[in-house]
Amino acid sequence: MPSFIITEKCDGCKALDRTACQYICPNDLLVLDKVKNKAYNRSPEMCWECYNCVKICPTQAIEIRGYADFMPLGGVVQPMKSSDSILWSVKFRNGQIKRFKFPIRTIPEGSAEPDAGWSTGTEDLKSPVLRTEPGSTGLSELPKL
Ligand code: SF4
Ligand code: SF4
């Protein structure tokens, strides 16, 4: 089910060199038509439906749409992200709308520590255990076979 850009809502990220959807797509599928100032998915069959572009688009211009041969047309799922939660609006093709809100953070935005407090060093690259082991397991050393 590929991403679909609603051209009426897309503002081309106000003509930035690289749009939000281009920046976030792990498959590099989204491109900006600089003449029309609208983004589009250049290879929908390669989209793995990760929803990254849908969530980051500042104008809610991107939807994931099912293929007509196995999914009824007319249904829409649209997320709206805030700094601490995400609200999913699900619109069924009979017009019924359901909304689900979920928290997405346990700490304030911008306060996450990249190493989560675990020290690291170049010796970790030579070690067969995970970077945080054995400390994160609660053991002083890992069991030996
Ligand atoms: Fe358009 Fe949204 Fe992509 Fe920006 S992120 S270019 S508004 S589809
Ligand atoms: Fe790329 Fe994911 Fe959006 Fe598909 S859903 S276009 S893979 S960011």
Give an overview of the whole structure.
The protein is mainly beta and 145 residues long. It contains three helices and seven strands; from the N terminus they run βααββαββββ. The strands form three sheets. The protein has a three-stranded antiparallel beta sheet with strand order 5-6-7. Strand 5 and strand 6 form a beta hairpin. 11% of the residues are buried. The mean pLDDT is 86. The site of one iron/sulfur cluster has 15 residues, from helix 1 and helix 2. The site of one iron/sulfur cluster (SF4) has 15 residues, from helix 1 and helix 2.
Fill in the keyword field for this structure:
145 residues; mainly beta; Alpha-Beta Plaits; three-stranded antiparallel beta sheet; two-stranded antiparallel sheet; 7 strands; elongated; binds iron/sulfur cluster
